[in-house]
Task: inverse folding
């Protein structure tokens, strides 16, 4: 399984929960805390994120940045040639 | 037990992100840093984001001019870091026509809601498409006048409760919802007409492809491209954003089926 993670800009999150229902891994949830605007913001609650970017695509605030581990380099094939 | 796990994860995630992981998705640079004023869960900001992603990917930030409407998206020029012009209510397509004729080498798009494009601006919309003006028209259809407090729009579904139709839209009194995109297909000037949505990640990807195609056709000077986006209005529909997604799938999409309505013949 590819590993990934996301960073959520809690300052601009409005807690609409669209990313929560879009996440295939159920790795997101609303925080018990509030941000400056008075919204409960979204948090990553486990490390099963695969970096699929579904949450970031549906995020209306464009506040999610997605990171993914790099693909393994194809070392053996290059050496054979 | 669980709390401890999360804490450990957070520590790991922080270090991994900075050292090993590569960034695969971020806020497009063509959006300004201003936070959107839209209600939580509104589809407008998703469309803004996707449009600006496409502009960034094609690399036409310097060559594109947008026309902002009157409606919820009246402040679109605060968020899109491109040249923009505000138009009078309903006249965005007419203003876009003028811009395109004066500056034919620029990419021009108009961005309108359903109260703007399908109600007060119906004449401008139909004649712009009929002339085959070489612009992209983006139409956000959420079946309601969102900005003014959720009144009934021409696109409101039969039986849908709004603040001016508290017993549901009465078809015998006010008629059936107008399907602008289907109407425009009949006109010879329309080159590419499609109806998309932003309710799930797959729909957002399809919308992005539609924008890509539309700008490609505009580059080739093919004619008017019309992209309707069936969207939600959590405040106007008096629902949570998650409930609006269900409503979209159950009620809106049967009335406004998604997909390409008119594609170029090869």
Result:
């Amino acid at each position: 399984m590819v590993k990934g993670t996301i960073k959520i800009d809690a300052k601009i999150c409005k807690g609409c929960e669209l990313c929560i229902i879009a996440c295939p891994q159920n790795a997101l949830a609303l925080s018990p805390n509030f941000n400056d605007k008075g919204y409960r913001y979204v948090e990553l609650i486990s490390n099963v994120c695969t970096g699929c970017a579904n949450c970031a695509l549906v995020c209306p605030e464009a506040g999610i940045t997605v990171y993914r581990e790099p693909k393994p380099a194809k070392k053996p094939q290059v050496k054979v040639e | 037990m669980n709390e401890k796990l999360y804490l450990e994860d957070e520590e790991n995630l922080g270090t991994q992100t900075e050292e090993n992981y590569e960034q695969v998705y971020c806020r497009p640079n063509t959006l300004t840093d201003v936070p959107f004023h839209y209600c939580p869960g509104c589809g407008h900001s998703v469309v803004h984001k996707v449009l600006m992603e496409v502009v960034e990917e094609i690399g036409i930030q310097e060559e594109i001019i947008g026309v902002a409407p009157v409606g919820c998206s009246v402040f679109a020029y605060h968020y899109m870091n491109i040249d923009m012009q505000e138009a009078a209510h309903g006249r965005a397509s007419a203003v876009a026509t003028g811009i395109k004729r004066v500056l034919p080498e620029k990419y021009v798009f108009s961005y309108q809601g359903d109260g703007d494009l399908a109600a007060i601006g119906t004449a401008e919309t139909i004649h712009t498409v009929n002339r085959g003006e070489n612009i992209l028209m983006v139409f956000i259809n959420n079946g309601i006048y969102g900005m003014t407090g959720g009144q009934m729009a021409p696109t409101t579904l039969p039986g849908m409760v709004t603040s001016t139709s508290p017993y549901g839209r009465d078809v015998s009194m006010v008629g059936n919802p107008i399907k602008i995109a289907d109407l425009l297909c009949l006109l010879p000037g329309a080159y590419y007409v499609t109806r998309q949505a932003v309710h799930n990640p797959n729909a957002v990807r399809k919308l992005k492809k539609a924008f890509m195609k539309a700008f490609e056709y505009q580059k080739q000077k093919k004619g008017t491209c019309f992209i309707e986006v069936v969207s939600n209005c959590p405040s106007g529909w008096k629902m949570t954003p998650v409930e609006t997604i269900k409503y979209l799938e159950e009620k809106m999409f049967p009335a406004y089926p998604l997909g390409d309505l008119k594609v170029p013949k090869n």
